[in-house]
Amino acid sequence: MKPTHAGTVVFRRNGDQTQFLVISSSNGLHWVLPNGHIDPGESAETAALRELCEEAGIRGELIQPLGIQYYEKLQKEIASQYFLVRAAETVATDEQRVLRWEDERAALDLLSFQQTRSALRQGAEALRGLDRQT
Fold this sequence. Notes:
Strand content: 35-45%
Mean pLDDT: 94
CATH topology: Nucleoside Triphosphate Pyrophosphohydrolase
Radius of gyration: 14 Å
Shape: globular
Number of helices: 3
Largest sheet: 7 strands, mixed
CATH architecture: Alpha-Beta Complex
Number of domains: 1
CATH superfamily: Nucleoside Triphosphate Pyrophosphohydrolase
Distance between the termini: 35 Å
Structural class: alpha+beta
CATH class: Alpha Beta
Low-confidence stretches: none
């Protein structure tokens, strides 16, 4: 199944600590990762960075693709391609989301859904692999 959605596992460095971004869902009931529809003619990479900016007010640098997470939402099959993204700058956004920067364990504990926890684990593991290479 071709990706219908794109999302991001966003990180930043705070001293020697790596922090991951977790945001409130649009209804405020859950903790999620930035994620949304891929518009017609839009690449998954472009959609992921657009959704990050729209939902969290963050522009980032795409580091590498992660896996595709499959799940059902409102009785529709969703295939969401996730990307590892380094936070670069904060910009204004119209969405009223709560943003939290947490270490890996706290972020995993916060996230409401198995597929977002799986994406975050993949992102954290990819980042550890990149850190070992440098």
